[in-house]
Amino acid sequence: MRADRGVALGPSITDGPAAVPRGRSVRVLVIEDEERLARLIERVLTDERYEVEVALDGARGLARALTGDYDLLILDVMLPGIDGVEICRTLRGRGISTAILMLTARDGVDDRVIGLDAGADDYLIKPFAFAELLARLRALTRRRLDPPESSQLQVEDLVLDLVRHEARRGGRLIELTAREFALLEFLMRHPGQVLTRNQILDNVWNFDADLASNVVDTYVHYLREKIDRHEQSRLIRTVRGVGYAIGR
C-alpha cells in the first residue's frame, strides 16, 4: 500500500445531516487504483445510502465516466496510465458537468490549482477523515440538486450565462477557465457586497485559507485582465484589508 493512501476515520461519520437527500439515490463513481482504499470508500458511502461504483484504473474509470449517469466522481490524481487530471480535462472537454472531488497526497497550492483548473469542483488531501469526505460530498450534492434561481447573472453590462457557461461584457465574449468562471459566478451572486478572501476560498476553492490566500489575489487579477482591462469602467473592486467586490 502506497504511503499516499492513508485515511483517518475521525469523528463519527454519521454525525450531522444525512449524506444523501431523501427520495433519490445519488450515484457515485470512485476512480482509485488502490483497491483497499477504494473498497473502504465504497463501504462507507454505501452505508450512507449512496449508490457506488468503483473503477480501479484510469482507463476504465474514464470509460465509465463518459458513458454512465453519475452525480459525483471521486477521482484520485495519481493513477497509472491516464491520471486524474487528464481524466478531468477529458470529461470537461466532452461537456460532462458531473461534480468531481479529487483526492491526492500532494498538498501544494500549485498542485491543487492544476486540478481545479482542469475542471475539478473540490480537492481533498490525503490522509483525510471520512467525516470530511462526506461533508464535501454533501456540499457538492447540494450545489448540483439546488437549481439556480436564474440561468443568467448580470452586473451592469457583464452577463454570465450559467447554462451555456459563457461570460459576455457589452456583447464581447470572454474566455474563462472553469475556476475563473466559478470565481466570477460567486462575485456576481453578491453584487456590491465586499467578500473576504476567506469567504471566496471557502465557496470557490474549499481551501485552507492559511495555505492558499494568494490564490484569490491571483485569480482576481486574471479576471480583471479579461473583464476590465479594455473597458472604461472597472467592475471588480479591491477593498484594502478586506477583500473584493463586483459592481457598486
Detailed description of the structure:
With 248 residues, the chain is of the alpha/beta class. It has 2 domains: 143 residues, Response regulator (Rossmann fold, 3-Layer(aba) Sandwich); 95 residues, Arc Repressor Mutant, subunit A, CATH 1.10.10.10. It is 39% helix and 22% strand. The strands form 4 sheets. The protein has a 5-stranded parallel sheet, sandwiched between helices. A 4-stranded antiparallel sheet has the order 8-9-10-11, with helices on one face. A 3-stranded antiparallel sheet has the order 12-14-13. Helix 6 crosses helix 7, helix 6 crosses helix 8 and helix 7 packs across helix 8. It starts with 6 loop residues before the first strand and ends with a strand. The N terminus is likely disordered.
Give a quick account of the main beta sheet: strands, pairing sense, barrel closure.
5 strands, parallel
List how many beta strands DSSP finds.
Answer: 14
CATH class of the largest domain: Alpha Beta
Poorly predicted regions are 1-19
Strand order of the largest sheet: 3-2-4-5-6
The overall number of domains is 2
**What's the helical proportion of residues?**
25-40%
Shape: elongated
Structural classification:
alpha/beta
CATH superfamily heading of the largest domain = Response regulator
Q: Span between N and C termini?
A: 54 Å
Order of helices and strands: EEHEHEHEHEEHEEEEHEHHEE
Mean pLDDT: 83
